[in-house]
Amino acid sequence: MEQNSRDQQLLEIFSEHESAMQLLEEERRKIEHIEVQMLQRGVVQNDAERRELQLEKKMIENATSDLMKAHDEVLNLAMEQKKEWEELFKEMIELEKKIEAQHAMELEIEIMKGALHVIEHMGNYEDIEVIKMIRTLQQEIKGTEEALDAMEHG
């Protein structure tokens, strides 16, 4: 949603720049047309009038150049912003994966603790296999808890 809003704003900025470029180009063409007509009719009678036309053309060229620079800067900023958003999105995905892995480990610990609790309540401590199973579960719980702790703090 926020991405669409940013994209729409960029499109509006580019559209405004394009419109301004078209207006400047139209003005440049008008001045050139006026200059050609005046020269053909011999209306430009002195250097002052000729310099005034040239000055107007130069101002339009400068404005066009400035607008192009601004357009390029906006485009560069948009590309930088897009890159930053992509990096943030990538970080967010990585964090989500880490959280999912932590939740999976927490669930695994709870399952092992539940199994250990059931075995301990059975109370058959004379059977060597039951004792081995209890020790194995305790070690697995401890190892998984250590791995979880390392994931959370590392």
UniProtKB/TrEMBL annotation:
Domain of life: Eukaryota
Gene Ontology biological-process entries: gene silencing by siRNA-directed DNA methylation
Protein species of origin: Turnera subulata
Coiled coil: 17-98
Name the record gives this protein: Uncharacterized protein
Alphabetic keyword roster: Coiled coil
InterPro entries linked: FDM1-5/IDN2
Keyword Coiled coil: yes
